[in-house]
Amino acid sequence: MTSPLEELAVRLRGFARARDWEQFHTPKNLVMALAGEVGELVAEFQWLADSERLDGEAMTRVRAELGDVTGYLVRLADVLGVDLVEAANAKLDESERRYDPELYRGSARKAPPLR
User: Fold this and answer.
1) What is the pLDDT of residues 51-73, one digit of tens each?
2) What's the pLDDT at 113?
3) Rounded-to-integer distance, Cα 10 and Cα 74, Å
4) How far is CA 60 from the centre of its chain?
């Protein structure tokens, strides 16, 4: 059984292959495209007050940018052979070790690096 993330990776791989774009989907190019899409997502929030909610049109644009970011991230992971869910869980495991709830509850301070 495949996960929705794996299904998306397969679909993106097929999309690129059908257009002969795999030659352009190098890790460097995918990272640059991902950064550009993250920039477009950031621009949607740039001048909002912290408590301001997105209206319908803005939410539609944000949803589209999130789709772009997700697509490039999944494609990059696929090209590099990285399991995104495994990588995210490993990072969360590390963060759980670094950020004891009793010491960091309600705090935005950084933890010292793990030794």
Assistant:
1) 788 889 999 999 999 999 999 99
2) 79
3) 10
4) 18
Are the CB atoms for 14 and 56 separated by under 8 Å? Answer: no
Residue 19 CA to residue 43 CA, distance in Å, equals: 30
Whether residue 77 contacts residue 9, with contact meaning beta carbons closer than 8 Å, is answered with yes
How far apart (Å, rounded) are the C-alpha atoms in residues 7 and 1? 10
Amino acid (one-letter) located at 50: D
Supply φ then ψ for residue 105, to 5 degrees.
-60, 125
CA dihedral 89, 90, 92, 94 (to 10 degrees): 160
Judged against a pLDDT cut of 80, whether residue 115 lies above it is answered with: no
The whole-number average pLDDT for the span 1-15 is: 96
Encoded tokens for 78: 């696929």
Q: Which residue has the tokens 């990059």?
A: 76
